[in-house]
Amino acid sequence: MKHRAPFDLLFDEFNEPIPDSHFPQYGMSARAAKATVNSESWSDCQPVMNLSSFVTTFTEPEALEIAHQHFLKNYIDHDMYPQMFEMEGRMVRWLHQLWNGPKNVDPYGTATVGSSEACMLAGLAHKWNWRQAREAAGKDGSRPNMVTGGNVQIVWKKFLRYFDVEPRIAPLKPGNYRLTTEHLDRLVDENTIAVVAIAGQTFTGEDDDIQEIHDWLDAYERKTGISIPMHIDGASGGFVNPFLYPEYVWDFRLPRVQSINASGHKFGLVPPGLGWIIFRERKIFNEDLMFYVNYLGGEMPTATLNFSRNAFQIAYQYYAFLRLGFDGYRMVMRHTVDNAEFLRKRLVDSGYFEIMNKTQRIPVVALTLKSEFTNFNEFDVSARVRERGWVLSAYSMPPDAQTVNSLRVVVRPHLNHNVIDELADDIIHACQWLHQHGGTATAPVLHDPHKVAVSKC
Ligand SMILES: *Cc1c(COP(=O)(O)O)cnc(C)c1O
């Protein structure tokens, strides 16, 4: 190789095409590799402006240092990093208490990669419990089903397909986007492993009719003798409800609620990926799903889908709980919901929108254009504000509300009042422009509307 000055070398490296379909043959300098990676992602959106996502995009410098200090640890190596495991166990007990788990029981739960893994573990526990009970009673245990609303996050559809459980999905309708008791009598039967109700759903931010569903299932048991447990998908609501609405009964205070998941990386305020699954008590997590690993001369239970995972999110969550405490989370959530209410008011007052979430628990603003605006739609508004850098989800609602389009803004804690004001201006200006010039977007036809919701960054 002929002698080249370092600058020439960099120059060449920066201009070398990156192979698309074969493994790169030669390496490059660290500086060139870094510049290549970063330049290839320049056109990604700015995470702080991605308001289609629930996931944390804010960090304190101290928390970033925590992440840095722990990110080379593999969480599953309990022998080597027993203190990470200790922190996790302590946080499981804290969450069990936060969600009003019964006292004098052995709480069980685990940190997961996200709510998705947490939901899968909960679904498996209910499937196993149901099948064992059926077999013990000499009944057929081969046709499990699960009841959810059409508003569930995609993870439940994955669970049902991957783990062979029949979906029993209650349809939505224009004007009602929640699971209520309306369809339960044709969906629930002796093969129902659980009813999943959501605290803070992805589409409109609303809660399902948790208490009513619980009461309906009580009445069903009195009538038929069949007792069906509930799982609460608190991916978002799990870190909002306890702090802002302590009197609101959505959690383990309801005896049928056997398991609750939440996303540490949503309103738990940790960067991706951290989720939590907490069981009412240890025995709900079916013993047959538990594996035991040798651990410092003893045996430790393990029951996650993943084996290796990064430990930093666990240290980070522990930092966040210590740093903020109950009071701090309450203040952060208060300010965030206040901002959501401010945005909601500005957009409703603009005259363009109707609000879709009648209740406002988690800080989500879900809107649909008033029917008088026929020359543009929610997809146009989303595309137009994208020119200003904002990413807002637009999607058509799940069946049977698919005629309704939604524009959704997830107001996260990093946004302040000024930013919300500017966002409201940008959305209103987009509507004014579109009303005058007309829009061109058509709603994409998809089997699963979540594809739209999650594909935006
Ligand atoms: C985000 C979300 C999930 C999936 O959670 P991840 O943490 O992204 O894996 C499940 N259910 C609901 C209601 C959610 O909002």
TrEMBL record:
Signal peptide from the UniProt entry: none
Record's catalysed reaction(s): L-glutamate + H(+) = 4-aminobutanoate + CO2
Cofactors (names): pyridoxal 5'-phosphate
Domain of life, per lineage: Bacteria
EC code(s) of this entry: 4.1.1.15
Keywords of this entry: Decarboxylase, Lyase, Pyridoxal phosphate
Enzyme class: lyase
GO terms for MF: glutamate decarboxylase activity
Family: Belongs to the group II decarboxylase family.
Name of the molecule in the record: Glutamate decarboxylase
Protein source organism: Luteimonas salinilitoris
